[in-house]
Design goal:
The protein is mainly α. It has 12 helices and 7 strands. Strand 5 and strand 6 form a beta hairpin. Helix 4 packs across helix 5 and helix 11 runs antiparallel to helix 12.
């Protein structure tokens, strides 16, 4: 009987550790202190040792053992947390693109951008930010990840002041999508002229949203107020899409 209880206790301990391993509460505490209105206090975040502790937690996780929602939350948080690390390690910096090897243009031409650097260690395997975005998250068939991962720039989605958690991730992604689509600094709708000026995110990742303009508009309409959504859906072929310039300046609190 004692042996049985020892086995039960051991299983409970393992279960508890697994639950703790998948809790992103520490990241929530960090974000809650250093993020306001989507902007980051990098100056003080640089001094916060908890970020390094959270990165170690991520590095020690085995993602392949997670459920789908756990993986989704894990990789979104990983992308955002390691992006913060890149900035604080190089702070002060005016733009994340300044960290490309050879500068902004050369970095893109030769695949030497900050998103190409394999500096992220997860379960003894190295990843780049680009790997997380393109080879993992985009493969999960969830286009709303583009409103959740944040590249430390003004035109990116605003950074949430809490971590993504598997048990509420659907509500969190819905909230991010509604906030991003309805933010006039990122997407502007002229109902009278039936013209829409969209974030370049919808152009860069058009295949994730449906490729064709009408399908992209259908996706966007899901997150708009009813009157605007109805007009778009009733007049899909009459709406013209243009794309706004992307502001790569640092998403820093001033």
């Amino acid at each position: 009987m004692r042996s049985l209880w020892r086995i039960v206790i051991f299983i409970l301990i393992l279960s508890g550790n697994l639950i703790m391993a998948q809790s992103h509460q520490l990241f929530t505490e960090i974000l809650n202190q250093h993020v306001k209105n989507g902007l980051v206090d990098y100056k003080n975040l640089k001094k916060d040792s908890r970020l390094e502790k959270y990165l170690v937690q991520l590095s020690n996780t085995e993602p392949e053992k997670l459920s789908r929602n756990e993986k989704l939350a894990f990789w979104i948080n990983a992308y955002n947390a390691f992006t913060l690390q890149v900035i604080v390690e190089n702070y002060p910096v005016e733009s994340i693109t300044d960290l490309n090897t050879g500068g902004k243009i050369i970095g893109y031409l030769f695949g030497k951008t900050v998103w190409d650097k394999e500096f992220i260690l997860i379960n003894k395997k190295k990843y780049s930010l680009g790997d997380i975005e393109h080879k993992i998250l985009r493969k999960m068939n969830e286009p709303r990840i583009h409103f959740a991962i944040v590249c430390a720039s003004i035109s990116c989605p605003p950074l949430r002041d809490e971590a993504f958690e598997p048990n509420i991730i659907e509500e969190q992604l819905k909230s991010q999508a509604v906030q991003f689509v309805n933010d006039k600094t990122r997407n502007y709708f002229d109902k009278q002229k039936r013209e829409v000026y969209l974030s370049k995110i919808f152009s860069w990742f058009s295949e994730d949203f449906g490729k064709k303009d009408e399908i992209v508009l259908k996706f966007i309409a899901q997150h708009l107020p009813e009157n605007m959504s109805k007009d778009i859906l009733d007049n899909l072929s009459n709406w013209n899409i243009s794309y706004k310039d992307y502001n790569w300046n640092l998403n820093e609190q001033k």
